[in-house]
Specification:
single chain, 5 helices, alpha/beta, 124 residues, five-stranded parallel beta sheet
């Protein structure tokens, strides 16, 4: 990697957040975790992530609403987002969201596939 990529993991499943964070850190990524969209939005300004991995179904603020807020803000609209979700129908909403660089991956996914997608989206 050219530089350390900062990743914000937003998922309401604590085990998924912790496992993904640990695996990504072992690959040299910097990670920050949030349990829902509200917490994720609060952490963005401090972390300034290079990419966001976002679940779709979460309490308080789900992934679709979070993504909409991110993609309609000039400060965050250019951050690539990977939806990582078991809710496959969420992929249908991606085309309706504003902004570019929004992708969908089924949960569970291959960790190597996720790494490849992260590297592609961050041009690293």
């Amino acid at each position: 990697m050219d530089k350390q990529i900062k990743i914000l993991l937003v998922d309401d499943d604590e085990d998924i957040r912790n496992i993904l964070s640990l695996l990504l850190q072992k690959r040299g990524f910097i990670t920050e975790k949030a349990k829902n969209g509200i917490e994720g939005l609060e952490k963005i300004s401090a972390l300034k992530p290079d990419i966001i991995i976002l679940d779709t179904i979460m309490p308080q603020m789900g992934g679709i609403q979070t993504c909409y807020k991110l993609k309609t803000s000039p400060l965050t609209q250019d951050i690539p987002i990977i939806f990582l979700s078991a809710y496959k129908e969420a992929a249908n909403f991606i085309g309706e969201l504003p902004g570019a660089t929004i992708e969908f991956m089924d949960k569970p996914c291959s960790f190597e596939s996720l790494i490849t997608r992260i590297q592609t989206l961050t041009h690293n």
